[in-house]
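Sample intake sheet
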Amino acid sequence: MPLVVSHSEQLPAFRRLEQDRVPIIRRSRAEQQDIRPLNVGLLNLMPTAAKEATEIQYFRLLANTPLQINPYLVYFDKHKSQSSADHLDRFYRRFSEIKEIGLDGLIITGANLEHYAFEDVHYWDEFKELILWADAHVTSTIYGCWASHAGLYVHYGVERVTLGNKRLGIYSHRVHREHGSILTQNMDDVVDIPYSRWTGIPSATVASIDDLQILVESENAGIHLISSRDGRRVFVQGHPEYDRDTLKKEYERDIQAGVEVNMPENYFPDNNPSREPRCTWIANAQVFYTNWINYIYQNTNYDPLKPLMDSDRD
């Protein structure tokens, strides 16, 4: 089932999704169906230039899941990017509003903040407040890239480590079936994942924490997917949401900015940047997000202000 939008919503990302024939249903039609849509929030921490592309990437994956979804774009009450203030004011909901609406699921994106200590990030206090609220009120939260490191730091005290070079490219990973997680059901045994990061989380550190399970891991690139045992905290180091050309654009941006980075690994055919990049990860990315939505549907309360079914709260 598709994303639910109203005729009055003019978010550019929605127009692009309609052009790409991604499933979208108008609210007037959705309200005629005897279904309670899931409320899924997206806290988009990406800078202005990447904001719309990030919205499209995540909404495309959510729109192809089997249930109606009310998408909510979220931003902080106090801190917002001045360069994208108009976009935020027009299309995003403040955290204080979201608390009144209630969410079944929440996705928190990465951010270009890897070179800063967490406590030096200007919205750190609001970020902590939001994720602690989500822990108590949202059925499941996905933390992406930088947010995965920040979430592991807040919830488990895990310290990230700095890598020697930027991990940039497409890396093969093995799915750990032994945990029996719903999040990896029907994924291939070996999955490709795009990476673009300067820091990482040591596997040994995660393995030492009883509440955490490593679900998808690479011998060369490290951990991609971590979950708490109950599935309510999901940490994603890679970028399964990326489009075919996202790494190409990031690589070109770094080169133009004078940043010393290697060519993305396993990405351009014959390592030739003039050739169209290979896309080998989207199908498994779709399976993952469909699984996540299915997990939420099975566990969320009919009242979106409550995170779990009443029988699970006893």
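Comment: The mean pLDDT is 89. DSSP finds ten helices and twelve strands in the chain.
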